[in-house]
């Protein structure tokens, strides 16, 4: 952050001139002794001087150190002299200069004009010109000690901008607390008048700088030493919006950790133009936040090309502009362009949430090089949990990844996936090795990228919305997908221990909607505690070849469905050949193939109660002798028949 303080700063020079009394004894040289201070602090160091003797209004030159000055202008050549603790001496008219003619002093008003250059800044005219009277200058030199002129000796507004050469004032010229409010004319100090690092804390009196003393946009970085201005130096309400130039305040100038970084700001410099590779800039910002203990890396609106992959460290969030689910937002808002890993699924994920509490939020992920062919181009996972707990993905649009969200390869306890929309082409979300209640909420997978016939056919024959393996008490609610081969698949983990597979899922799902799916729910294995689903809708609009609502395959699974509707072009709403228990109640079956039973149970156990079947289609319920036990209670059959042949069968209160 840089401040351009406006005020009046003073450089004062005093003469001592020795002239003999008799005209005939006057040499053509004048000894000049000067005292050069910044406020009350003597200046030390080599300096460049230029001198001229001019008339009262500075429009005529009587003499100059190289004879080149005309009309009071600056001589061409300079004299080098050393200033020691504010004192220096030079002989005007010495052998290196033209002699000072006595005729100069025949003019009624002769003034000495001086220019000074400290070797860093340009020449500054030390205004005003000094009128030459030997006794006057001698008295001045004798009576004004170094540092005698302080802010108390200056009238308010006495030093204005025009009196100060650009860059003439540095911190060395300022006495401690030399600059106070009464000595500064409003707006008199601009950035051009301040040398870099000129203003430091000791040079400012408490409360000296107020908003009235600051010219608009006058405060820039080079004029202020780091940490020079503290609260003690600012008057109440001294800093106002109009006094701060846009973009002048950076985090490096603040004495606190904001926990928030804009990856487009220095030193990171992400561009977001869709052409420059922003991988390194964004990753550097993520690493910086993580190193400081965690926080947010913000990506403003833009298209960020990522030529490789990103890792979001623990305690760190990568955040874009979206605060709600977005649609058709590729190239709008914050879009991450994924291009790496073409042709294979086993490469590095596009984004890895690596560690506890890592978060991805408010972005769109888009694969600009994906093709509308059958099959489409494989890519690695778009997002992967890297093994930490409490990773979060929310308000994200997955436009067209081949593989969506991987919470299976590494354990991801208490994950939270919320408000994720998109069109993952092969797998939407996979979960495994989660031993402590993950949450998946408000998911909508639909053709947000394309309804091209090739892509629709590929997804209908291959794609899985949810792939659930070992996860304990998973919570899934308010989910929807369209056009997938399987809505939700439940199977045992491929990870094994001494007892074999570590098992499958148990948990609860609500408000589950699978539209135009070939198979709505496919179950092989779950934990004994089962999957509990309320408010289930499964429909088919002609996609796929199986047209099954619930499919229980060989394995051991438990499913409890309470409140469901099966409709559309479903050949068989329920086909259960699993050794586990199926409980199905309060469901509506609005259509099925007349050549097949609506519900077919060939294995395991089943409780079917309080269900409704559309009138006079055919067989409502078929239970084969290979089924262990079945209870069929209180169903409204509406002219459809039942065939109950389980080893143990209970049937009661079913309305024909």
Integer tally of domains: 2
CATH superfamily of the largest domain: Single-stranded right-handed beta-helix, Pectin lyase-like
Portion in strands: 35-45%
Q: Structural class, from helix and strand content?
A: mainly beta
**Number of H- or I-type helical stretches:** 3
What helical percentage do the residues reach?
Answer: under 10%
Provide the CATH top-level class of the largest domain: Mainly Beta
Low-pLDDT sequence parts: 1-24, 135-144
* Biggest sheet architecture: 32 strands, parallel
What's the rounded overall pLDDT mean? 86
The radius of gyration computed from the alpha-carbon positions, rounded to a whole number of angstroms, is 42 Å
What coarse outline follows from CA principal-axis ratios? rod-shaped
CATH topology of the largest domain: Pectate Lyase C-like
Give the termini separation: 83 Å
CATH architecture of the largest domain: 3 Solenoid
Total count of strands: 45
């Amino acid at each position: 952050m840089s401040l351009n303080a406006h005020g009046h700063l003073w450089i004062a020079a005093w003469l001592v001139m020795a002239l003999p009394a008799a005209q005939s004894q006057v040499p053509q040289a004048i000894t000049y002794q000067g005292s050069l201070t910044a406020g009350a602090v003597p200046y030390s160091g080599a300096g460049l001087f230029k001198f001229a003797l001019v008339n009262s209004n500075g429009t005529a030159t009587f003499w100059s150190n190289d004879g080149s000055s005309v009309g009071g202008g600056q001589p061409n050549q300079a004299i080098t002299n050393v200033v020691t603790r504010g004192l220096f001496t030079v002989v005007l008219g010495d052998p290196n200069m033209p002699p000072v003619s006595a005729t100069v002093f025949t003019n009624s008003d002769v003034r000495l004009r001086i220019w000074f250059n400290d070797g860093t800044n340009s020449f500054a005219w030390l205004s005003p010109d000094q009128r030459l009277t030997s006794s006057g200058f001698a008295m001045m030199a004798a009576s004004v000690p170094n540092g005698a002129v302080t802010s108390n000796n200056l009238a308010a507004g006495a030093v204005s901008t025009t009196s100060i050469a650009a860059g003439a004032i540095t911190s060395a010229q300022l006495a401690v607390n030399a600059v106070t409010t009464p000595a500064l004319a409003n707006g008199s100090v601009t950035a051009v008048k301040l040398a870099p690092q000129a203003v430091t804390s000791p040079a400012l009196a408490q409360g000296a700088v107020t908003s009235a003393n600051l010219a608009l946009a006058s405060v820039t970085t080079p004029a202020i030493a780091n940490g020079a201005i503290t609260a003690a130096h600012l008057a109440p309400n001294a800093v106002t919006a109009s006094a701060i130039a846009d973009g002048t305040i950076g985090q490096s100038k603040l004495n606190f950790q904001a926990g928030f970084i804009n990856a487009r700001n220095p030193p990171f410099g992400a561009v977001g133009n869709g052409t420059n590779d922003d991988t390194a800039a964004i990753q550097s910002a993520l690493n910086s936040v993580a190193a400081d203990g965690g926080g947010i890396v913000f990506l403003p609106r833009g298209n960020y090309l990522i030529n490789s992959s990103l890792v979001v460290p623990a305690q760190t969030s990568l955040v874009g502009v979206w605060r709600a689910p977005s649609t058709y937002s590729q190239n709008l808002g914050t879009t991450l362009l994924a291009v790496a890993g073409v042709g294979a699924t086993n490469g590095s994920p596009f984004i890895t949430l690596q560690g506890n509490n890592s978060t991805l939020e408010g972005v769109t992920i888009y694969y600009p090089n994906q093709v509308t062919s059958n099959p489409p181009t494989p890519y690695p996972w778009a997002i992967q949990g890297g093994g930490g707990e409490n990773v979060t993905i929310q308000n994200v649009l997955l436009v067209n990844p081949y593989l969506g969200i991987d919470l299976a390869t590494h354990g991801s306890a208490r994950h939270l996936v919320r408000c994720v929309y998109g069109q993952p082409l092969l797998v939407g979300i996979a979960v495994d090795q989660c031993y402590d209640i993950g949450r998946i909420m408000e998911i909508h997978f639909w053709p947000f990228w394309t309804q091209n016939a090739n892509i629709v056919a590929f997804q209908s024959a291959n794609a899985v919305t949810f792939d659930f393996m070992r996860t304990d008490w998973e919570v899934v609610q308010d989910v929807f997908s369209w056009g997938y081969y399987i809505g939700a698949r439940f199977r045992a983990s491929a990870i094994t221990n001494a007892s074999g597979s570590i098992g499958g899922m148990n948990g609860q799902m609500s408000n589950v909607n699978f539209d135009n799916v070939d198979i709505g729910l496919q179950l092989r294995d779950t934990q004994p505690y089962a999957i509990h689903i309320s408010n289930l809708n499964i429909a088919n609009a002609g996609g796929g070849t199986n047209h099954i609502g619930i499919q229980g395959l060989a394995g051991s699974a438990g499913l409890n469905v309470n409140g469901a509707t099966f409709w559309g072009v479903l050949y068989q709403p329920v086909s259960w050949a699993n050794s586990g228990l199926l409980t199905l109640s309060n469901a509506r079956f609005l259509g099925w193939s007349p050549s097949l039973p609506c519900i077919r149970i060939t294995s395991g156990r089943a409780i079917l109660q309080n269900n409704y079947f559309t009138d006079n289609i055919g067989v409502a319920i078929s239970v084969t002798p290979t089924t262990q036990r079945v209870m069929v209670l209180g169903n409204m059959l509406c002219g459809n028949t039942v065939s109950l042949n389980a080893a143990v069968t209970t049937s009661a209160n079913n309305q024909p």
